[in-house]
Design goal:
binds iron/sulfur cluster, two-stranded parallel sheet, Tyrosyl-Transfer RNA Synthetase, three-stranded parallel beta sheet, 326 residues, binds tryptophan, mainly alpha, 56% helix
Length: 326
Amino acid sequence: MKKRILSGMRPTGPLHIGHLLGALNNWVKLQDEYESFFMVADWHALMSEYQKPDTIQENIKGMVIDWLSCGLDPKKCTIFIQSQVPEHLELAMILSDITPLSWLERCPTYKEQLREMKKRDLTTYGFLGYPVLQAADILLYKADTVPVGEDQVAHLELTREIVRRFNNMYKNILVEPHPLLTKTPRILGLDNRKMSKGYGNYIALSDSEDTIREKIGSMITDPKRVKKTDKGHPETCNVFSYYKIYDLPVTKKLKDQCQNAEVGCTKCKENLAEILIDRLSDIRKKREALLKDKGAVEGMLKDGNRKARQKAYSTIIEVKKAVGMI
Ligand code: TRP
Ligand code: SF4
């Protein structure tokens, strides 16, 4: 029997190369080894975007197309939309009854988001319960493994605490999930800040070739290298960290040339743009084909929603029986 994974992303904007390196490439590998569920977390998107939810539907479609373009294969995994499986909300309701407020209030991601997302008012009841809904997402499918980034580990720990509480209080039916951390070097955004939708400092998987050239051209280079004849410091230059994503012969060559002042930063960036364009070209081609075949994507999602719902239904019945609601 294959082990089961579930993971998800919030449809809050276009996917970028950070998602590709940090999650998607890994998901594509995992779908061969695990029984896999990949979920569009649209309720979670609404929690932070409720003041301006008008782009969520568009983002859902874009995200699913990006997933497929990167290599998720509906023959190998189940792709579904959280809000199309109402059992998520039912389980979240039940879990919210047994989750102490203090667990949620002390959750580090909650405190951090309140501090960072100044533009949005996140002091809501729903947002405090973010990890409870996330726990429901995972537990409905009895996933034993959850591929996530470092930032989600606290949520997984909370999920495990909720499971232990539930199993002790009612019946031993929920499964404690383990995080599967993706070990990829985090790359910074184009402006050396954290890569983030909010900053717009990323290469989106849907960016055109010209946009990629333009964005890479705007990257900050080694500030210590003022003139072309100055020697560069590739290890502290963000442009070089992008070269390092791909271990190509040109990576080593460029490092030497930079250190010996044999290449200018403009040329170096032009070169990088062409590498990225080349590496992303398969994704771009698939994306274009999928955009022309909307019906196929919709059919695939219908199928995924149905499969997810089957599994979710059997768990929710068990849970409701355990808590005496049926
Ligand atoms: N909170 C996750 C994120 O922002 C998204 C998510 C929602 C998720 N439900 C999940 C991830 C369940 C893993 C499992 O990245
Ligand atoms: Fe950075 Fe490239 Fe310039 Fe070296 S040549 S400093 S790696 S941009």
